[in-house]
## 1
Amino acid sequence: MFQREAGRSGGVIVSREGHRVTTLELFFDLAYVFAFTQLSRLMAQQHDATGVVQALVVLALLWWSWTAYGWLANLAHADRGIVRVAMIVGMTASFVCGLVVLEAYQDREGGLYAPMVFVGAYLVARLVHAGVFIALTGPGLRRRTIITMALSVVPTGALLVAGALLGSPWQLWLTLAAVAIEPLVAYRSSVGVDWPVRSTAHFTERHGLVVILALGESILSTGVGVLAEPVSTPILAGAVLAMLVCVAMWWAYFARLTGLAEDALAALPAARRARAAADGYTYLHLALVAGVVVAALGLEAAMAHIAEPEAFGTSGAAALGGGVACYLAGTAGFARRILGAWPVLRLVAAGALIAGIPLLALLAPILALTAVAGLLGVLLVAEALAVRRPAYGRA
């Protein structure tokens, strides 16, 4: 798979089973944490469905970039040789993307043309990754790698540049098309190809860390909603309820799924492992991160009005209930793909949250938070009591 498989070559260290995440990868992720916080601000700034769609489209672009570097770091150590250079360049470019997220669709007067700055920074990250990935790939996979990169990055870049130049309303539609091309091309071009997962432990830990970072962003959003207010009993109660929501989402993934999923993935033959890793982590984990980012908007909205008796409102209720529901549905799909069984209780809870959005909208913010935290608590207890056996599929 790699040139000079054994040991070091030009500073590159090939990954082996059991290798873990490096500190450079944790550093790399901080740029994406910043971008996640800006996405919440973009949704709050727009305060409508269009703003949510715009933010989720940008999130998807950033996600394809992040997963590309995740695969690269799984093949060779992120903190050595040209891979280290690529990680640093990609991190810097992604930080620039986060810096201009609020202007990605609507340029402010003065300064550089922000939509094109965003596109340029994004393409720098992708092209640097593509170049290093191709350089590290051995003859057996190099041709297919070049084809995959060309069919995904080139048309994506063209659509993004055209969208930035044309502006609204074409930009959103062209960016949506670009977002769709990435996973479709990667999925189709990888059929029948033995893409290696060098270290299952690294791959699963890497994705777990990005979920943790997204959850951390939701906690930050909770605090942002009340920073300007004096501490009061409703604020303290709301903070506790918001933390319970975040803890429940953490519990649903880390306490119930990650260990079983890592064991199940490691037990698969190499070819099936690569496909399962792509399906369960590269694709389905986007639903988890998107759910957390949208839920963070709902938590911030609830905390901003936590002491008010008026109704929460449709936008806040849709963000809170819809975000948590998306997260639960994402974990359910992940469990089905990796562990082989549907966690039905999660799907029921996700459906209840979606159906209950009109009711959440009528409740006061603190009561809406109580309802969501209570439902998550009931779900976790019900899962624990359901049957005295491993929660999903095989151990």
Note: The beta strands are 8-9, 12-13.
## 2
Amino acid sequence: MQEKEFNLTLEPWILVMQQDCTVKEVSLTDALLYAHRYTGLAGELPTQNVAVLRLMLAVLHAVFSRVDITGKDSPLRDYDDALDRWEELWKNSEFPQQPIRKYLEEQQDNFWLFHPEKPFWQLPEIKKEWATQSEPFSKLNGAISESGNKPRIFAGRCGEEKNKLTNSELARWLICMNQYDDNTLKTGLGVGLLGQFVAVTAKGKNLFETLLLNFVLLNRGNEPWTLEKASWESPVKYGTEIRKIAYPESQVAIMSYHARFGKIEKYHEKGPRYVSPKGGICYDFISKNEQMALWKKDKNDEPYPMNSLRGKQAWREFSTIVAVEKISCGLLQWHTVLQEILGTERVMCYELVEIKYDSSQHSSVENICSDSLTLHLNLLSQLGYVYRELITKEIGRCDKIAGAIGKLAGDLFVAGGGDGEKRNTPTEQAKEQYYYAIDIPFRKWLATLDARDEQDARDDRIETWRAQAEKLAVHQAQKMVNEAGTPAFIGKTITVGEKRKYYSSSMAMQWFQIEMKKIKEGTV
């Protein structure tokens, strides 16, 4: 029988960044109690950091939705209770030890990675009659994510080392896999919960601030969440068939949710592996109770979680992240409530993490992307509405300039002897080069915008940005013309429909200048 081994509340396994920029492994208890000493989580991948962050938030919800900072029973009853509880924690500058220690000591037996009856987030046994799948540890290891029949090229580990994981690594990747698992042999179950949307988290000056900034105590109706149990507080209900369940009503249930029922067999005679039934549970639909999701609307005006930035920089999706009319992300909506505590002058950093699976069966991970957006908290308020609208317009204007740059690249390609039907590639490359050129300048400009600005100051900031965006576009255009060389200068005449059209670098530049003038005047 499997002995108890490696308790997540006692053993070090969470990777944190210390003040001197060194990385250290700490236990779940220490990560919470001394969060103010660490600058943040430092896991192997951004996806792992999000998954571990949610587990830590689940513990905070399990504790502070039931007791106050002294440990006295005090369930949250209304809006004022929730804000007072959050403010007390924030002003304390570190988490109170007594209630967290008490809770984790009471739940200690539910946090064993290996346990004969209730291993953490696993099944106690895998029955022989079940239809199962078995994966090597190289598949469980998200930094490799290698299946048994498709070796990873340039993996961080090689040979036998690919299938070796310490207990601390197993704990981190088990939690990450439960949130971001692909759909291998689980048709109908779908990818992990966090794999279904772009996860938005707030980043503070240290881990304590990061946890509290993501600690949402009110739902969209500005009422405290219903009291539910964390997954480790309830007996595990599992089966061999895929079944769908309703999305939970409370944050503690959502943050502790895991749909992958499997078992780590570290000491199996045929080698270490992770085994799971092909059945499991999944949500029928991600509801607005999910606070980290971005929401968009389809053609029927129905909301759905945004699952990809489509290769764009985060600021290019500003209108989705910081919706002009109504904040769509629950976390950001919560921050509009916190302004009276945090102050309108506070600058916030939001991190966005997404995982890309293969486009067919979602059976493997292709890429992991992360980006950030820094802005004044007051831009989320009603006062910031004007700026949100202006920022959205400026991003649209940048898109038009990128379009003009792309057209210039296509025209130069044709003028230099290229096939007109193949101009799309240089066009898209030039547009991306422009977005790359304005990326850092735009981020810096966005971080300076303050909803308290007077009209004159606001106009000056807009004009300053426009001048910079246009200058960078002209610089790139001139460089492209210079690099087009003699063939493009001489030019080429091609047939477009029934007409003949002459392309040259000078003509292309002239067309570009005309387009830029229209953009400047607002006629396009």
Note: The first helix runs from residue 28 to 33.
